[in-house]
Amino acid sequence: MGGNREPRGLIVGNYCHDVLIKDEVVLAETLGGAVSFISAVLDGLDITSDYVSKVGSDFAYSVNLNHTPVVSPSGKTAVFHAYFTSDPSEIRREDRVLKRIQSCNPISPSDLPDEANFNFGMAVGIAGEISPETLEKMLDICDVVLVDIQALIRDFEIDGTVKLMNLNETGFSHLLPRIGFLKASAEEAPYVDIEEARKSCCVVVTSGKDGCTVYCKDIELQISPFTTVQVDPTGAGDSFLGGLVAGLVHGLAVPDAALLGNFFGSLTVGQIGLPKFDSTLMQKVKDEVQRRKMQCDEHDDESRFKKPSDHEQFIASLCTAKLLTTDEVLDPDPSYADHQILFVKNSVYEEPIKAMDTKP
């Protein structure tokens, strides 16, 4: 993906309105959707992309003018409720229960540009808005396409609760050989035949505090995590994808790019809702990525999946950048999750949700 021409991406997926609910108390309402988290990373790293998203006339957020969504007059903006619990006796595989309250119109192939001049694409649907036909057109007009598996395998119960289905039971499985990178969380991975998928594309499985694992053909790499205090896991995988593609676009080896993904995922879970990345931090990251780009040669198909000899130095550099700006990005107090609540513009309820203290 790292070529001589100015990188240009195509990001496809709808925005949504996220309502975060802990122990039946609304903590915050915020702009959501994978595109919002990914754009925060790509914009911060100066990577130009076109965004194809749909919302309803009830959409109440301001976004970058270059990322303005298509407004469907007959539709409504997708809404998700994310339910969290602080009860230690509540043991779940997932860190939250997610429900789709309403969904927007799907993104059709005709909504995408016709010209085939994108050097990367990202299929990052959240509510079933990307069809096999739409993904197929993305594969036609983009050099490499990265896919978040949630865009392909999410299904919904009658009450909107998100459930997952096996990839082979969807209409997407025949497109797998054409996908460049497939990202899945540890919870989603069982719904994909990793051993089969890795034969034709690079599969990256994220595991939260344990980092991520890269699978490609006969290669399996464990990529280190970054220590952080988790406040809200929403969007961590999206920010990971943003960091991953940023590294690939700049010509980094896959292990370095995946490390950059872990880095941005760790920053995201330390904030409630859509993260804000400190400008000083982002500049340090850009400088470090540029330094590595200048030092490394072009990677062939084999070497691009090997950890560079100075991979550990890259880890140290990113840790240093994070530590130097952490006070502006994260609150290191573990009780942060219990008392730091955001005030976010509300587009669903009649009154804004005000800042509140949920400590007993």
Quick one: how many beta strands? 16
The helix content is 25-40%
SSE pattern: EEEHEEEEEEHEHEEEHEEEHHHHH
- The SS-based structural class is alpha/beta
* Rough outline: globular
Query: Mean pLDDT across all residues, rounded?
Result: 85
What is the topology, as strand order, of the major beta sheet? 4-1-9-10-13-14-15-16
N→C terminal distance = 51 Å
How would you characterize the largest beta sheet? 8 strands, mixed
Radius of gyration: 19 Å
The parts where pLDDT drops under 50 for at least 5 residues are: 327-360
What topology emerges from the helices and strands here?
Elements: E1 8-12, E2 16-22, E3 25-32, H1 34-44, E4 48-52, E5 54-56, E6 70-72, E7 78-84, E8 97-102, E9 120-123, H2 132-141, E10 145-148, H3 150-153, E11 154-156, E12 162-164, E13 181-185, H4 194-197, E14 202-206, E15 212-216, E16 219-223, H5 236-249, H6 254-269, H7 279-295, H8 311-329, H9 336-339
Parallel strand pairs: 1-4, 1-9, 2-7, 5-6, 9-10, 10-13, 13-14
Antiparallel strand pairs: 2-3, 7-8, 11-12, 14-15, 15-16
Helix pairs in contact: 1-5, 5-6, 6-8, 7-8
Short description:
This protein is α/β, with parallel strands linked by helices. The chain is built from 9 helices and 16 strands.
